């Protein structure tokens, strides 16, 4: 296993240099970069799916617009909740309304599927707010970990924007409330449930009834567009009555008829009536006519398309890409997907999401799963689920290798011949690693669903192997809930299978997540359990790495002497086991404890030794951190010339890697150096820049930030900045990049 070591009280991360930072955000968030830290404009998000044709919803659209105008006149945000039966057209009505507002709301459009009907349960509001924040330009590393902090930042960012938000398929009003923007934004919520609770938030509750027979006939005519409705008006009316006025059912029946231009509507009416009786047992209350229409459409599919329909009904997530279909059915999948789309059984969401991507309507997915249970054997269903799981495992592993090419992974078990490579495709100036991370995050609902189903389908190794492959995503995108859940499930699976190597990996990687969220005691307990296992199995290197992990936990628990003892042992044992770099990181941790205790000579010696090893190991980020600590220790010793050289070099390197928190600590050291030299103008500028970086990194409440704030306040009030003599300008702090916290 790779280690995860750092040298200060506030950081944890991987041995490859990644930094996990948590904490409150105090102050504004901004995105800047380039020369002089110039601000970059983040383009507005335009996330709404495309509109679809709607029929006879004029009154509903008028009511929504009247409510919006009234709310605008009163100076309030607009909130509307649209409810109705599955397939009645709630999302279509909301989209038709919101798309007309785009010219008046230049701040953008946000969209979230809240998953009330999702197989793995409704979406977590905290994760949705996190996605919204990133869409609004907040770097992933600056998204706060706690829901309350995320909501506060979200409302700060939307307070002066004019934008629209669509919250689709909501489960409860409580799920919706954290997602409501501030300011004069427009929010539409759709749900199968009526949500009177949103009236308390100023919402207008609109319930959609099924279409009238006349409107449903109009929709059928538009779907066919071939004159059959005009030629057979009574039969058309009978058909839409069997569809219960639900637009989804009408479109499905129309698609079936459109594929059979010589068939009369009467034949469809007869067949649908028979199916209605036969499928009564499969009905969901109020949806039985849709079920009948679906079964008729299914019977009209080519055999390969029908099989793909059944197999995709087993897919554990709500959306899937074309590669998943090809993993299930091979080269025949392309034509089968076209057949399902033409039959209105699949929705193509590529325009809204990018790439080749599809989803079932909830009722269609349930129907497909029911057909799989009926027409596929248990062995065939399990095999299909494993093909899906192995497909995601293989591609998550590819993404992991791109993001962390040097990481030692757990062994992966899958058949390479059944895997179709996903296209991670970098967009614009995006790096390959960022594109791979985006793919992991986009697919995370599906990946987590596979982790959950691994044990029930008899493949526990899928749980820990996929969790291990997801490791690069969790700390970089601050996905703490999934970090916890995946490692918890992976640990249970590894324990049941008796795989101690996997148990230890789940313990150590999972415990780092506990440290990141402040559960230091729980993390320590997990590290100690892993250490006992390594010791029992005679794994000296694994045990030596846990020394450093346990030291980090004790350091965060306010026990520096115990932490120092563990760091010292790790610094001695890790090189002896062949891991020089991990040993250097342990020595850097030891130096950090010495510095915090005022033992500056010890701190300088250990930090300098760590820097030399880290430079030789090709780790410029941690080498720069070591140089910064050396400089601050030399400042404490009064060696001002050496302090300036070390701090200036460290700041340049850390800025180049967008390591905001560490750069801020170095700026604090340069500010203190300026104070010692009697340069108050320069000191104030360094302190201000440091505080700005602490705020950007979400660390305004850290001890270092508080010290910088106090020292700045203690200095005399600044004169006009323009009057500062050139010799006091911060020439030792060249402008850098403000992209976010440290990456690789």
Please characterize this protein's 3D structure.
The structure is a single chain. The chain is mainly α and 744 residues long. The strands form three sheets. The protein has a five-stranded parallel sheet, with helices on both faces. Strands 8-10-9 form a three-stranded antiparallel sheet. Helix 25 packs antiparallel against helix 26 (560-576), helix 27 runs parallel beside helix 29 and helix 28 runs antiparallel to helix 29. It is globular.
Quick check: average pLDDT? 85
Low-confidence stretches: 1-39, 278-285, 718-744
Strand order of the largest sheet: 4-5-6-3-7
Instruction: Please report the total strand number as a whole number.
Output: 10
Instruction: Describe the main β-sheet briefly.
Output: 5 strands, parallel
Radius of gyration: 30 Å
**First-last Cα distance:** 18 Å
Class of secondary structure makeup: mainly alpha
Backbone shape: globular
The helix count comes to 33
């Amino acid at each position: 296993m790779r280690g995860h070591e750092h040298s200060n009280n506030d950081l944890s991360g991987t041995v490859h240099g990644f930094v996990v930072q948590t904490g409150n955000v105090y102050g504004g968030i901004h995105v800047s970069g380039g020369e002089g830290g110039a601000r970059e404009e983040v383009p507005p998000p335009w996330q709404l799916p495309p509109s679809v044709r709607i029929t006879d919803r004029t009154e509903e659209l008028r009511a929504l617009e009247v409510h919006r105008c009234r709310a605008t006149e009163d100076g309030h945000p607009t909130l509307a909740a649209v409810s109705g039966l599955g397939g009645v057209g709630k999302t279509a009505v909301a989209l038709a309304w919101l798309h007309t507002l785009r010219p008046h709301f230049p701040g953008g459009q946000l969209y979230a599927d809240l998953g009330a009907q999702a197989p793995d349960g409704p979406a977590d509001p905290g994760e949705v707010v996190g996605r919204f924040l990133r869409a609004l330009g907040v770097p992933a590393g600056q998204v706060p970990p706690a829901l309350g902090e995320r909501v506060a930042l979200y409302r700060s960012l939307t307070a002066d924007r004019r934008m629209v938000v669509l919250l689709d398929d909501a489960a409860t009003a409580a799920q919706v409330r954290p997602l409501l923007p501030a300011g004069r934004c427009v929010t539409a919520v759709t749900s199968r449930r009526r949500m009177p609770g949103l009236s308390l938030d100023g919402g207008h509750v609109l319930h959609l009834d099924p279409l009238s027979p006349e409107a449903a006939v109009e929709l059928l005519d538009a779907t066919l567009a071939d004159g059959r409705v005009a030629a057979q008006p009574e039969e058309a009316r009978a058909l839409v009555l069997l569809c219960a006025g639900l637009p989804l059912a009408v479109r499905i029946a129309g698609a079936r008829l459109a594929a059979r231009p010589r068939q009369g509507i009467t034949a469809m009416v007869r067949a649908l009536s028979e199916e209605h009786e036969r499928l009564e047992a499969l009905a969901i209350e109020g949806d039985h006519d849709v079920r009948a229409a679906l079964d008729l459409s299914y019977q009209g599919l080519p055999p390969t398309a029908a099989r793909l329909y059944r197999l995709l009904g087993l897919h554990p997530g709500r959306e899937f890409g074309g590669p998943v279909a090809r993993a299930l059915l091979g080269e025949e999948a392309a034509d089968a997907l076209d057949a399902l789309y033409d039959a209105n059984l699949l929705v193509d969401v590529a325009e809204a999401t990018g790439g080749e991507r599809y989803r079932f309507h909830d009722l269609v997915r349930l129907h497909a799963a029911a057909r799989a249970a009926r027409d596929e054997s248990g062995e065939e269903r399990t095999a299909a689920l494993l093909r899906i799981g192995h497909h995601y495992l293989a591609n998550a592993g590819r993404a992991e290798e791109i993001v962390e090419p040097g990481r030692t992974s757990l062994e992966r078990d899958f058949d390479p011949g059944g895997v179709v490579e996903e296209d991670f495709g970098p967009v614009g100036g995006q790096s390959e690693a960022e594109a791979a991370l985006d793919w992991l995050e986009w697919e995370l609902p599906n990946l987590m669903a596979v982790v959950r189903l691994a044990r029930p389908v008899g493949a526990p190794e899928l749980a820990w192997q996929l969790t291990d492959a997801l490791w690069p995503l969790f700390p970089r995108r601050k996905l703490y809930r999934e970090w916890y859940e995946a490692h918890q499930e992976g640990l249970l699976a590894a324990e049941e299978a008796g795989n101690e190597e996997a148990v230890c990996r789940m313990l150590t990687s999972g415990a780092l997540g506990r440290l990141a969220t402040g559960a230091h005691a729980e993390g320590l307990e997990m590290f100690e359990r892993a250490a006992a296992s390594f010791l029992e199995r005679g794994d000296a290197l694994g045990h030596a790495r846990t020394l450093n992990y346990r030291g980090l936990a004790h350091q965060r628990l306010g026990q520096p002497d115990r932490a120092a003892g563990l760091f010292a042992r790790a610094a001695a044992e890790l090189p002896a086991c062949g891991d020089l770099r991990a040993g250097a990181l342990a020595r850097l941790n030891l130096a950090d404890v010495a510095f915090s205790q005022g033992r500056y000579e010890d701190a300088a010696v250990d930090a300098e030794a760590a820097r030399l090893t880290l430079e030789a190991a090709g780790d410029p980020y941690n080498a720069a951190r070591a140089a910064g600590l050396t400089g601050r220790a030399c400042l404490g010793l009064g060696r001002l010339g050496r302090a300036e050289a070390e701090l200036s070099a460290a700041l340049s390197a850390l800025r180049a890697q967008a390591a905001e928190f560490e750069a801020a600590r170095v700026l604090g050291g340069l500010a203190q150096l300026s104070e010692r030299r009697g340069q108050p103008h320069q000191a104030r500028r360094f302190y201000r820049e440091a505080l700005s970086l602490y705020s950007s990194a979400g660390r305004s409440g850290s001890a270092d930030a508080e010290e910088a704030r106090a020292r700045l306040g203690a200095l005399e009030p600044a004169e006009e900045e323009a009057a500062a003599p050139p010799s006091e300008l911060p020439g030792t702090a060249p402008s850098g990049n403000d992209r976010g916290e440290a990456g690789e």
